[in-house]
Amino acid sequence: MKQEELKSLRSELTWRWADGPAYITQCPIQLVNPYVYNFTITGQRGTLFWHAHTSCLRATLYGPIFILPKEHIPYPFPQPFQEVPMVFGEWWKADTEKIISQALKSRGAPNISDAFTINGLPGPSYNCSAKDTFKLKVKAGKTYLLRMVNAALNDELFFSIANHSLTMVETDAVYVKPIKTNIVLITPGQTTNVLLKAKSKTPTATFAIAVRPYATGAATFDNTTATGILEYEQPSSSKNKKLPLLKPARPKFNDTNFAMKFSKKIRSLATAKFPANVPKKVDKHFFFTVGSCPKNQTCQGPNNTKLAASVNNVSFVLPNIALLQAHFFKKSKGVYTTDFPTNPPFKFNYTGTPPKNLLVNSGTKIVVLPCKSSVELVMQDTSIVGAESHPLHLHGFNFFVVGQGIGNFNPNKDPKNFNLVNPAERNTVGVPSGGWVAIRFLADNPTQVSGLCISIWKYTPVGG
Fold first, then answer.
1. CA distance 379 to 409
2. How far apart are CA 366 and CA 454, in angstroms?
3. Residue 101 burial (C-beta neighbours within 10 Å; 0-12, 13-18, 19+)
């Protein structure tokens, strides 16, 4: 390769390698070596976030990203009086790297966190944390835009404020048709913007802000609640009075019915200014089953004995060289293969009793897509170990959630009900517990070299 070509290639890769998990698009950043991420914002706006992507470092290393509209460009909803970041996370007393290491040795799920947090603060529902409480102070009659980020490791979260309704206006940095709701469900990796309209008159009470998990799996889960407080500015004559704290109603921790109904309400604006460019014609179809290898079976995961998350019976093995790097520098031989199955190796009742032998194998396998091909991917949850909601994030692309349902996906009937007019446009979605979700996207964010145009992507199971 000529020197000028190599220089151009490195320039191209500078921004292409600025998004993605370790060893997928780039190698991890070395200790004490700085790394500057350069990326171009083109046509994007809204709330996003960043986090570490190696092992459990993302438990504590994360933050929000706010991309404002261009100057003099208004929001497609009432202008808020104030914008408030609200980042939901988890906190451990122990070293999270030691926790995940112990889990790998024991073959079980990692220990749950000691607390959920709102902007780093757990709130009064945990021992000794009453002083470490997020407080939102508002003025009567004003409207506030809450920019919410779920940076928790595994848990989908219910969010609510006592005696207040919310209006969803954006998900994953895409405007949506306004949805009035008392409860918001937000999956790990998702962002959601909601409008909070303060009461017209100053109430003589304070209001709890609650964040608690939505959990459907059979494994141990955290049923605690991070609590913040919504306070109204009080007249000077009432400032020293202790006001009662009202608590919000919340769904059951495993309310799958609520989760499904909530997700189906989300719709793109689908206007001339904010179109929903969902692919109508599909070039590539994929059907992925997601789950884990059953207990007491050899899964050919690490050490050949652990529970191993799998897609189409393949458990992903991290390479020693980043996939994108191996491709660009023509060193892919022995690093990965391009035979990732487009369908599971055999059919079974995915949400019923699983077969005794699932033939799970491990490997570094990828899907190669022609540039600008349109893709439809159906992800089917399975009852292997236990039905569980699996959040999925796709790096490098937004996608449209064209359909979802409970039970086994029916390729002859279900596509007839796909929403191809105004489906939700997202970068993260939950595969419903005991159900399926169908997404479509255009593979138009390619990596290029020598005329070859491909998109490398992988499924990252969370909590499974």
1. 9
2. 11
3. middle
Q: Please name the helix (run of DSSP H) or strand (run of DSSP E) that holds residue 378, with its range, or none.
A: strand 374-381
pTM here is: 0.88
**Tens-digit pLDDT profile for residues 69-126:** 988 999 999 999 999 999 999 998 888 888 888 777 765 667 788 899 999 999 998 9
AA letter at 18: A
Cα 271 from Cα 269, distance rounded (Å): 6
For residues 9 and 7, give the distance between their C-alpha atoms in angstroms, rounded to a whole number: 5
Q: Which helix (H) or strand (E) holds 439?
A: strand 435-442
Domains of the chain, each with CATH number or no CATH: 75-265 (2.60.40.420), 284-454 (2.60.40.420)
Contacts of 94 (CB under 8 A, 6+ apart): 111
Give me the count of residues in the chain.
464
Strands 82-91 and 143-150: parallel
Contact 63, 50 (CB under 8 A): yes
Q: Which helix (H) or strand (E) holds 96?
A: helix 96-106
Average pLDDT score over residue span 62-75: 93
Amino acid at the residue 313: N
Those residues with Cβ within 8 angstroms of residue 249's Cβ, 6 or more apart along the chain or in another chain? 160, 182
Torsion on CA atoms 418, 419, 421, 425, rounded to nearest 10: -120
- Of 249, 211, 251, give the one whose Cα is nearest residue 121: 211
SS3 content of the chain, % helix, strand, coil (to 5): 10, 35, 55
Copy the structure tokens of residue 203. 């109430």
